[in-house]
């Protein structure tokens, strides 16, 4: 009798105890030690389901290939400059893009001269700029890989669908994207250069503006000893 009263008293004092004992273990609330099984490099707990090395979703370009004047934002004047350079002096725009992408001052002249030579040879022999795109399309691939941007194949799959199984293979996808980068430069060369220029100016500051602080030593002023009284 005494044991029955004690058992009833425990159940009345903790009415949820009996329910928790019958509840499956998977439905019980997990402790912080069970919920987090690791820590990230920033010192934050990593919950179950987080996979280290999981690919980050690709983002879209800030402007399309046909948006020659860019967007109506605070980069409007820069977009106009890019459009003007792409129409009049594509060699200058390409050299500026590569210099900004590499963030190394001095690379402008080398790429600009190489592009200008191929531009002159292509126009002299074939009547149009047919050689420079084969040299400049690698910059588009580098921009896409560096900023994890969406390629033409992925954009087509997002719009129309039907290429999901093909894009699951990273090797095949990258080969397709590289071929699309080349085709974009061959058939829409000036528009591709302008799109890359707008993208880089929104993401990377010009290397010429990355001035390093200079420590200036200022000599102390002249000191004079006071005359004693």
Automatic annotation (TrEMBL):
InterPro entries (UniProt xref): PLAC_motif_containing
Annotated PANTHER family: DUF614 FAMILY PROTEIN-RELATED
Biased composition regions of type Low complexity, renumbered to the chain: 20-32
Span list, region Disordered: 1-32
Biased composition (Basic and acidic residues): 1-12
Name of the protein this chain belongs to: Cell number regulator 8-like
Pfam families linked to this entry: PLAC8
């Amino acid at each position: 009798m005494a044991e029955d009263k004690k058992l009833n008293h425990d159940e009345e004092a903790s009415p949820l105890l009996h329910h928790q004992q019958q509840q499956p273990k998977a439905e019980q609330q997990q402790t912080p030690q069970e919920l987090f099984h690791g820590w990230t490099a920033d010192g934050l707990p990593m919950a179950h389901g987080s996979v280290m090395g999981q690919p980050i979703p690709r983002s879209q370009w800030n402007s399309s290939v046909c948006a020659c004047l860019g967007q109506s934002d605070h980069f409007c004047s820069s977009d106009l400059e890019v459009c003007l350079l792409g129409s009049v002096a594509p060699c200058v725009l390409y050299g500026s893009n590569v210099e900004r992408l590499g963030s190394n001052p001095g690379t402008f002249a080398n790429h600009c001269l190489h592009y200008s030579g191929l531009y002159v040879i292509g126009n002299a022999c074939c009547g149009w700029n047919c050689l420079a795109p084969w040299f400049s399309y690698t910059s588009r691939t580098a921009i896409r890989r560096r900023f994890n941007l969406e390629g033409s194949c992925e954009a087509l799959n997002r719009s129309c669908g039907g290429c999901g199984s093909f894009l699951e293979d990273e090797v095949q996808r990258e080969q397709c994207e590289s071929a699309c980068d080349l085709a974009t430069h061959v058939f829409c060369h000036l528009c591709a250069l302008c799109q890359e220029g707008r993208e880089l100016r929104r993401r990377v500051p010009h290397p010429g503006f990355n001035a390093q602080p200079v420590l200036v030593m200022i000599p102390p002023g002249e000191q004079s000893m006071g005359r004693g009284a």
